[in-house]
Amino acid sequence: MIDAARAVKPDILIFYHSCGHVTELIPYLIEAGVDVLNPVQPECMDFREVYCRFGERLSFHGTVGTQSVMPFGTPEDVRQNVFENLDIAGKDGGLYVCPTHLLEPEVPVENVIAYIQACVDYTSR
Predict the structure, then answer these.
(1) DSSP letters of 58-81?
(2) CA–CA separation, 114 vs 94, rounded Å?
(3) Which end of the chain lies in a sparser environment, N or C, as judged by fewer CB atoms within 10 Å?
(4) Is the pTM of this model over 0.70?
């Protein structure tokens, strides 16, 4: 399917969604032509590990837990999480830093604001 899509639009980016722990499947996803893995759930995958192993061949989407830091952390926890994940990707990039899924009603608005502000502040430093 990816080959067929690229035959029509060679520069298409392929986002692949798979919840849960898929670290051992990542080499096969890369081989199939996936460009971005969505999401990297910190509750079951270590972003530092997957980035170190696959960051030269794959980009990542997520890393801010919607089952952990967003609903139950403090605004400072959210900020630290965003900064830590962006630091892991570093100058090489390859990370769409964002919540891993939809934000449920239990997420405090202060944490949403902290996430947005952390993204702005990180790019400003």
Answers:
(1) -EEEEEE-TTTHHHHS-HHHHHHH
(2) 22
(3) C
(4) yes
